[in-house]
């Protein structure tokens, strides 16, 4: 609860709303104690006195009644009616929603049909119809406003309850022999309560507004008693001659509704966990670059050179060092594999190259990414955009999520071409057909007009590859392109990539967690752990003689076809969180060879020839023979 | 596509029947009997009874419903006793005015709302975003009737930019310019709340979409950020914006009641309020039913639009 209040008041607007609303509520609570004139006593000799008149701070209305007094009593009434309507609507609506969601089946069907019928009405129209039936009057207006809001609560709460009704703890309660009524009260209700509170806090403002509206129309509170709406309605005929009688109640309605809305939004944000860490921040067009140290000036090694790259995520006051100083390079026609478990930083490394790390929360804090010698991190947006897809192209993991669901694949392909070449649409489409043939898509003409959801996973990934090939890039970064595919399709896609590389002299950076794939495709491999490279070398060498204990454990995880039965060794433990890395080797806690020195201080990447390993006690005995 | 529209039209029939039942039941629940209301409290019991029989009110509820439904389907909504003319004639006379007001407001709130939401999301936490968020916050908190009154005070009385009220000039020609002159203020006042609601939703829908993987794909292939926002993100966000447009259309259509009262606009809303105050039951019944049916029709149009946008919806 105190966490909730802290979150609520961290939101300055919500705090403002709470203060304004609190002041209004306090004022109307003590209204009967204040030395005010009676609100309903007419004094026609003193009609329409302006504000700040003797004895009438806000002036008087068309019957000479004191406006301040009427305002405070009217506010009392409006608030009471609005809140009462909200409570009634929330209680009834939630009860209906819980019953429908909990019992499901026919009960649910019948109830929800009825709710749909009510929701088919325009909101205010239904309220009018109900008031028409019951007759004008404040109580009837309250009933009408509450009634039209019941379907809203019923539908929302039903949705949440359906999700809960099949959860383990509900099943457990059922098995324990609890009655349905008790399950609803003890297990379901506490879980839907936050949703009810959110729904209420976001609708109570509307309900106050709607009751005021009905009163404004003369269908709510009846003379001489007035709520804010009827005060405004009565003042309307004198709008032009004596505007203050309209402005006073109108501003009060506005203040109440605004403060309720501000507070309601604050409550929603504080209770909705999705918004807690600012997860809804939009990723910018380019990752933020805030380099702390000097830009490394290492001589060029390959076409694409990553030098001491550091990428961090700043979220909720914590800093996650996703990439902690990675240096890599790839030459034309070469395939470099980056391998590691999930969370090792391999994808973030790859996305940093073209500034595609979601930012916020991502920030590139150090190092350089050089393409043919130019530092991409200091490139302005337009320059970087021109290089995206043309110098360095990406193939992403799950083509179901990475292709736009609402555009035909042909259009998505031509767009890649049209983004970099001023050619006609027809020309772009011709290119598309060629590309689709190049990635061996049968019937490219008709496939072009298909939407992503109409294609198989393998076909979608071929589209992804064609899209990457569209502008003849020199480097392709493939981020687990086969992970979402089944094994036979995976083999086809790998063969395709390998062919394209040989035909076009492409440099490929291939990210995977599977040493089997690395063995098949990559010339060199870099092993990443906790945001750093722990071992690097020619694929054959690394496979034959892994020197870092992590690498050798990772290789042991790969089952071998025809290799006979052997124990598959899982690596004990989990990779560390990268916001609080211990000093020294990050793998030490999971390593069977770890000694005290391993965690004493920084372990450097020791380079010998084209091999590198970050370990104080590297393995040296050959693990197994390589078939020559 | 034709089949899909037909399917949606057919599926609207039960909804319309449900609406008719609800309207009928609400009106049947009115305490006191209509005959007394029509004849006044000085009527003799014999006259009341005779009128009740003439009106068919002595029959069972279900029978009365089907008789009433049969009449409604054939276009007979009954006769308004206060206006002494057929209910349908009165509704049709007035519906045009409401349609113009609500239609223009709906276009205004959709265009302005989506525009504001997109700009807000594209410049998240920037000056434009903060300004829009602030204006939207005020917009959704102002009662439309109060806003309308203040607009009259400022733009009609003080600045004399627009006429105070009405739909047509009392003297002078009734052309499109005269209509627009009268329409500006009521249409704006009516659209403000809906604009705010749509802007908020459009902003959060855009922010949600911008985090999706396919946006990263578009960026990775070198699509310009302007196009990423205006095409890729907006198109995907529209999938969640369009249903809300449908809901807001209902708000605008029925919210026109307040605006018609404030601006003396000769529409269905004002007719309904007058009918409720004079207890003209048949007029209320007919008006509510007619507007609700139009709204159902509008929602079908929204569904069709949605299916055109999103190929994943089975047509």
Automatic annotation (TrEMBL), chain A:
<comment type="similarity">
    <text>Belongs to the binding-protein-dependent transport system permease family.</text>
</comment>
<keyword id="KW-1133">Transmembrane helix</keyword>
<dbReference type="GO" id="GO:0055085">
    <property type="term" value="P:transmembrane transport"/>
</dbReference>
<keyword id="KW-0472">Membrane</keyword>
<dbReference type="Pfam" id="PF00005">
    <property type="entry name" value="ABC_tran"/>
</dbReference>
<keyword id="KW-0067">ATP-binding</keyword>
<dbReference type="InterPro" id="IPR003593">
    <property type="entry name" value="AAA+_ATPase"/>
</dbReference>
<dbReference type="Pfam" id="PF08352">
    <property type="entry name" value="oligo_HPY"/>
</dbReference>
<dbReference type="InterPro" id="IPR025966">
    <property type="entry name" value="OppC_N"/>
</dbReference>
<feature type="domain" description="ABC transmembrane type-1">
    <location>
        <begin position="75"/>
        <end position="264"/>
    </location>
</feature>
<dbReference type="InterPro" id="IPR013563">
    <property type="entry name" value="Oligopep_ABC_C"/>
</dbReference>
<keyword id="KW-0812">Transmembrane</keyword>
<feature type="transmembrane region" description="Helical">
    <location>
        <begin position="77"/>
        <end position="103"/>
    </location>
</feature>
<keyword id="KW-0813">Transport</keyword>
<comment type="similarity">
    <text>Belongs to the ABC transporter superfamily.</text>
</comment>
<dbReference type="GO" id="GO:0016887">
    <property type="term" value="F:ATP hydrolysis activity"/>
</dbReference>
<dbReference type="InterPro" id="IPR035906">
    <property type="entry name" value="MetI-like_sf"/>
</dbReference>
<dbReference type="InterPro" id="IPR050388">
    <property type="entry name" value="ABC_Ni/Peptide_Import"/>
</dbReference>
<dbReference type="InterPro" id="IPR027417">
    <property type="entry name" value="P-loop_NTPase"/>
</dbReference>
<protein>
    <submittedName>
        <fullName>ABC transporter permease subunit</fullName>
    </submittedName>
</protein>
<keyword id="KW-1003">Cell membrane</keyword>
<feature type="domain" description="ABC transporter">
    <location>
        <begin position="304"/>
        <end position="555"/>
    </location>
</feature>
Automatic annotation (TrEMBL), chain B:
<dbReference type="GO" id="GO:0055085">
    <property type="term" value="P:transmembrane transport"/>
</dbReference>
<keyword id="KW-1003">Cell membrane</keyword>
<dbReference type="Pfam" id="PF19300">
    <property type="entry name" value="BPD_transp_1_N"/>
</dbReference>
<dbReference type="InterPro" id="IPR045621">
    <property type="entry name" value="BPD_transp_1_N"/>
</dbReference>
<keyword id="KW-1133">Transmembrane helix</keyword>
<keyword id="KW-0813">Transport</keyword>
<feature type="transmembrane region" description="Helical">
    <location>
        <begin position="236"/>
        <end position="261"/>
    </location>
</feature>
<feature type="transmembrane region" description="Helical">
    <location>
        <begin position="12"/>
        <end position="30"/>
    </location>
</feature>
<feature type="transmembrane region" description="Helical">
    <location>
        <begin position="176"/>
        <end position="202"/>
    </location>
</feature>
<keyword id="KW-0812">Transmembrane</keyword>
<feature type="domain" description="ABC transmembrane type-1">
    <location>
        <begin position="95"/>
        <end position="306"/>
    </location>
</feature>
<protein>
    <submittedName>
        <fullName>ABC transporter permease</fullName>
    </submittedName>
</protein>
<feature type="transmembrane region" description="Helical">
    <location>
        <begin position="281"/>
        <end position="305"/>
    </location>
</feature>
<dbReference type="InterPro" id="IPR000515">
    <property type="entry name" value="MetI-like"/>
</dbReference>
<dbReference type="Pfam" id="PF00528">
    <property type="entry name" value="BPD_transp_1"/>
</dbReference>
<feature type="transmembrane region" description="Helical">
    <location>
        <begin position="131"/>
        <end position="156"/>
    </location>
</feature>
<keyword id="KW-0472">Membrane</keyword>
<feature type="transmembrane region" description="Helical">
    <location>
        <begin position="95"/>
        <end position="119"/>
    </location>
</feature>
<dbReference type="InterPro" id="IPR035906">
    <property type="entry name" value="MetI-like_sf"/>
</dbReference>
<comment type="similarity">
    <text>Belongs to the binding-protein-dependent transport system permease family.</text>
</comment>
<dbReference type="GO" id="GO:0005886">
    <property type="term" value="C:plasma membrane"/>
</dbReference>
